[in-house]
Amino acid sequence: MVDAAGCYVTPGLIDHHAHVYPLMKTGIPSESLCFSAGVTTVVDAGSTGYATYEGYRNFIQSETLVQIRPYLNICATGLATLPHLENLDPDSFDEGRIAEIFAKFPGEFEGLKIRTSKNIVKDFGFRPLDKTLEIAEKIGVPVMVHCTNPPGPLGEVIRRLRPGDVLTHMYQNIGPTLLDDQKKVIPEAYAARKRGVIFEASDARAHFSFEVSEPAIAQDFLPDIIATDITQFSMNQRPTSFNLAMQLSKYTFLGIDFYEALRRCTENPARVMGRLDSIGTLAPGSDADVAILKPIEWENEFGDRPYYDPERQLRKGKLLYKPMMTIKNGKIVYRDMLF
Asked: Which of 15-29, 275-289, 306-320 has the lowest mean pLDDT?
């Protein structure tokens, strides 16, 4: 018997963007970090490529209770070579090997992932993105596109995206952003949303800004998905993303209704993943993944950069949603000591 008076009983949270590959330098400890945040399903956003995925697969399949759903990085090695950046020369993309691994493990991937930052694509500009979209179209999968510091106007990234593709780090402010010179959301974003492109807020340490998020939210351009982009560098670190419960707290502070913010951590990602019958819901017959969250009045600083960054901006809030219990497949996997 659990007395959840004064709490919200919700579907297990879905973190649609994190990095949990244990052989990657920045990979997080999935069970301890996810369950303590109310997260029961996590999407690994491109930690591995076709050359490294099979070494990760056993961990996904049998060594963790957290349900992990990966995107496959367009780069052969994924992010395993960090801090050395991935090779995004489009002539190096092995379309045959990529198609082969999708065929070998059908239904295991959410799609392809590419980072379009200027410092990664270098002089290739938009060619790596175009080639990734071409490969994805042939395989029949969506693409998640990291858009921080793009190689040209963000509208040029967005207009290329297809229904079901995901633009992640939507509120970033490095290089061209979601806003025009008058702080208005660019028309390409509205057109993309209308045709079915998914906009994701996944903030990590530097992929979010108040200068973009606050005007965009005021114009009702909200995320379709709220996630974290948590790595070992940002997990449990104030004042940035911390974990998904902190993200939920931050976006309600920014003016999004709690139930709408919660949908963006449960129902919406489950629908994008095509799994709303089993996760992101408390409907009969689903996976019995549950999070219990307690609203706590607590003065807290939300930030868009770490404390050590002189460019950081801070906002002070007075409400947090504290995970009290997490249930995975009907079993208690986390419980606050006082609950």
From this structure: 15-29
